[in-house]
Design goal:
Length: about 140
């Protein structure tokens, strides 16, 4: 295992293998990608971008928030919520607070990841901006594949 993989896994220790987080594997996010794999991919990409471009963001907060950004724990395709895109960030934040005792900064990052769809939830930190951008890139890639 290379150093980046080890450090990434260390940042998510106790979360990525938590039975509550593993429930995300049951739900499809985009195309045939599970919510778990989507969140893992977004977390990995923000981690690598932060390091590659020496952004000096708070890695622990960034990676944890990125992994939990879609922690809404249901299949949005049959959830009968046509406004899922507007609601799920708040639900993910509430679930993450309940299950993983996230910080207020992590909560803010999760809640703002759907900007500009949620116009009033503007990212307030550099970590939040990076997650917002990377999530859209990964989502587009997953949807088009």
């Amino acid at each position: 295992m290379d150093l980046n993989n080890y450090e990434f896994n260390t940042l998510l220790k106790g979360i990525i293998d938590n039975p509550k987080a593993l429930r995300m594997k049951k739900f499809i996010q985009h195309g045939n990608v599970s919510t778990y794999n989507h969140c893992l991919k977004v977390a990995w990409k923000v981690f690598i971008i932060n390091r590659k471009f020496n952004l000096k963001l708070d890695e622990k907060i960034l990676v944890k928030a990125a992994f939990l950004h879609d922690y809404f724990l249901y299949d949005w395709h049959d959830h009968n919520d046509s406004l899922h895109g507007y609601h799920h960030a708040k639900i993910a934040k509430q679930n993450a607070r309940r299950d993983f005792a996230i910080s207020s900064k992590e909560a803010s990052i999760i809640e703002s990841h759907m900007w500009p769809l949620n116009l009033t939830k503007i990212p307030k930190s550099r970590e939040a901006w990076l997650l917002c951008i990377v999530d859209k890139m990964v989502s587009l890639d997953e949807t088009l594949r």
